[in-house]
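Shapes recur. One chain:

:::
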Amino acid sequence: MTAPAPTPAPDAEGRPWVVLVGPPGSGKSTVGSLLAQRLGLDFADTDAAIVARIGKPIAEMFVQEGEAAFRALEREVVAEELRAGHGVLALGGGSVLAAETRALLAGHRVVALEVDLADGMRRTGMSTARPLLAGVNPRATFRALLAERAPLYAEVATVAVTTVRRSPNQVVAAVLAELGHGPSVLPEASPDAADPFDRPTPRQDSTLPAPGFGSPQDGAGTERAEAR
C-alpha cells in the first residue's frame, strides 16, 4: 500500500511547502492564495513583501531607482521569504533571472505555472503596475519575455502546470494532483460560473484589455502588482 503524502507544512528550516514561479499573468498570487486556503497554510507573495518594505508601488521604484536597484532588493527579499516559514510562497515573475535565486530554489518544491500569450495578455491587461510590459509594443515585449524566461522556470521547477484556458480552481486542483494531494480529475469550469474562480480567462470573445484571472469585472482574481 502506498504511504499517504506528508501533511503540507513548511519544514523545520522555515522553507515553504511549495513555491510558485511563472511569468506575469500566470496567476501566481491568485492560485497561491487559493492553494494556501485549501491546505490551511499561510500564503506570502514576494512582490507584496517588497511593496510593504519600500512603501510604494514597484512601478515607482522602477522609474525612480531603475531595474538594477529593484532586482537587488528582490534577491534580498526572496532569500528572506524562502526561510520565513510560509506554507505557500509566490515569487515575482522576474525573480528567476538571478542565478543566486535559482541556486536558492534547489531542493525546494517548486511549481512553475505556465501561460500563453493570449491568456497572459488578457490577465495582465497591460497594467502600468507591470513596468516591463509598458512600452510601444507590449505584445511583442510579452512574447519575448515568455521566450527568455521559459528555460529558467523549467530549470528551477519540480513540476510544471499549465494555466491556459483553465479557471483558478482548476489550476489549484492540477497543482495538488501533481504534488500527490488530490485527484487528477479537474473540477468543471464555465465563463458563467457563479464562483469567479471557476471562470477561465476569456479569449476570442473578449477584447483587450481584460485584466484578471477568473473574473475581470469584479477583480476577484487579479494578481498583485507583479511585473516583471
Observations:
- The chain has a mean pLDDT of 86.
- The helical segments are 28-39, 46-54, 58-65, 67-81, 99-104, 117-124, 138-156, 168-178.
- Residues 3 and 29 are 31 Å apart (CA to CA).
